[in-house]
Amino acid sequence: MNSTPTSTAALHAERILTRAVDSPLIRGGLTIVAGVLTGNVLGFVRVAVIAYLLGTRSHADSLAVALGPLDTLNSVLINSIVFAFVPMLTAATGEERIALFLKLSRGFVWVCSAIAAIVIAGAPWLMRVLAPGLDPGYFNTSVNVLRILALSTPAAGVAAVHCALLYTDRRFGPTAFYQAAINVFTIIGAFTLWRFIGVYAFPIGYTAGALVQLAIVYFAARSGLKTSSVPPSARPWSEILTKPAFFVVYAAALGLNIVFTRAYATHAGPGMAAALDYCMRGVAVPLALLVNPISNSLLPEIARLRSLFRLKEALRLIDRTIALTALIAMAGCGFAMAFRVPAIRILFQRGSFTAESTRLVAAAFLTLAPSVIGWSLIEILARSLFALDRRWPAVIAAMVPVLVNATISIRLGPERPENIGLGSSVGLIAGFAVLFATAHLTRKNWLAQG
């Protein structure tokens, strides 16, 4: 008697699963999650290799003060290009889309090459800003590392344009493993070149990974793409360049928070900038696992509700998502802070990374860990507001963390490692508070306009 309902339920569940597997959105989401997980696992391996070979010495500082800011620059470029041009390419069709893609590709070759040239030429002056307290004996090393890493910026920017085209076709596989490719080749470079060129093995591997990822997305995007006899795009450059401008300012302002913290850490003595970068791995992984899956599922729904003029529902959805993210972030932060010492010992304490290194990193992580709360919340809320076409609140709030960070850090001084991350954490939480308050105070006007 009960077999028929059971069989019907099983058949219904099987149909739902089949539809889910066949859905390009779900497959794409799973591919992105797989890429994020793979990239972050390999990121732990990369940091473990750096810790094993360099520990918390000045050599490690010379790598950290160059690699960290350049990695932030590349991330800002990639996210801004994808965020701005996926909707633009999606709205275009046929030859118009191809022409726009070709124009973007050619244009950003020049834009990103110019950025790389400026970084290479200005590396000595940039290093005085990015690492004011670095041991003078390692200053030239950091300059050379930054110059090698700058060669990855044109590859990252042009690859992002190709990723944007692939996203419009819902082809996520070639794009999802960018960070994984960077980390794999950095690890390979370290193991194969360390004995011959020392710390320079890391930037060479990083740059090689960016070039390999460019090659992957280049051939994936252009295979079968008919570019001959396509008329030039009539889209003006003024419109093209203003599209990512708001997101560039927002992402750059938010990135300055950790850039300042790293520069401030160089005043705390040898190894402190490197210790901060080891701590950042413990912040970046939960941040990526929180922000990317949630925003990838949240933003399309917000855009859909906005297009249907159901702004009140969109705002309620944002509030519920923020509350859930806050609970997850606080629970994860508390767990990480409680078990930071054994975790750091298991992950990193070998080779040049000694017990003293563990103590130093654990002390810095104690105050840096809460930054994941403010960082994840401000990222999700800001991206949601961008999806609602409310840009200014996010741009203004992104400037708050670095201002608060600088105020607290300068007042406390760098003498204790526990002081290094405190300004960053308080600044990010303050930035989220400002953005949250602004969004709630102005939502009546938004609803009236909507």
Structure description:
There is one protein chain. The protein has 450 residues and is an all-alpha fold. Helix content is 83%, strand content 0%.
Entry keywords:
450 residues, mainly alpha
Q: What's a quick, concise take on this entry?
A:
This protein is mostly helical and 450 residues long. Helix content is 83%, strand content 0%. It folds into two domains: 23-243, no CATH class; 246-450, no CATH class.
What class, by secondary structure content? mainly alpha
**Helical content band:** over 70%
- Count of helical stretches: 20
Instruction: Encode the helix/strand succession as letters.
Output: HHHHHHHHHHHHHHHHHHHH
Give the mean pLDDT.
86
Q: Measured on Cα atoms, how large is the radius of gyration?
A: 23 Å
Distance between the termini: 54 Å
Strand percentage: under 5%
Count the strands?
0
Residue runs with pLDDT of under 50 for 5 or more positions:
16-22
Whole-number total of structural domains = 2
Rough shape?
globular
Q: How is the main sheet built?
A: none
List the helices and strands and how they pair.
Elements: H1 3-22, H2 24-54, H3 58-91, H4 94-121, H5 123-130, H6 139-150, H7 152-168, H8 173-176, H9 178-197, H10 201-222, H11 237-242, H12 245-265, H13 272-307, H14 311-338, H15 340-348, H16 355-368, H17 371-387, H18 392-398, H19 400-412, H20 422-449
